[in-house]
Specification:
Blueprint: E1 6-11, H1 15-22, H2 24-41, E2 47-51, E3 55-60, E4 64-71, E5 80-86, E6 94-96, E7 103-105, E8 111-115, E9 118-122, H3 125-133, H4 135-142
Antiparallel strand pairs: 1-3, 2-3, 4-5, 6-7, 8-9
Length: 147
């Protein structure tokens, strides 16, 4: 019997920034949490193939793959075909902490501040405090970062 599988590498965005901002122990905890969350999210026919530091490799059945087409990407000479994996993520909304640039879930963020009429979410109270001390510094730096 042949089963079609989609192989997915899930990588923690902002892992290096989180390591620098919060230390190796916190980063190691995040990597361990990723492995646990990936394992919990797998369906009965899916498989966690390997964990690789801040990433996991999964083999999944039933993920819809949508071809987005060829795109020019920075630092890659030729156009690259991109694909979107359509999975059910529920009502989770991700945001980026403006201090450490870590992607976090808005509904689990330990800190939130309003500045200049805009809400900002933070991965830790330390990042919220740093932002509160100098918001423009962190917002000006985030203008240079693209998602």
């Amino acid at each position: 019997m042949t089963v079609e599988r989609t192989f997915v590498i899930v990588d923690l965005a902002g892992f290096s920034a989180a390591t620098e901002a919060h230390g190796d122990e916190t980063a190691a905890d995040l990597a361990t949490q990723l492995t646990g969350l990936a394992t919990e999210a797998l369906g009965p026919r899916d498989q966690l193939v390997k964990s690789l530091g801040d990433a996991v490799l999964c083999a999944c059945v039933g993920i819809e793959v949508v071809e987005l087409g060829a795109y020019s990407l920075r630092n890659i000479a030729d156009e690259t075909n991109l694909f979107e994996l359509v999975v059910d993520t529920g009502d989770v909304t991700d945001v980026v902490d403006p201090v450490c640039r870590m992607r976090i879930q808005r509904n689990h963020a330990p800190g939130r501040l309003r500045y200049d009429g805009v809400e900002y979410w933070f991965c830790s109270l330390d990042c919220a405090a740093a932002f509160a001390t100098s918001p423009r510094r962190h917002l000006d730096a985030s203008d240079e970062v693209t998602s």
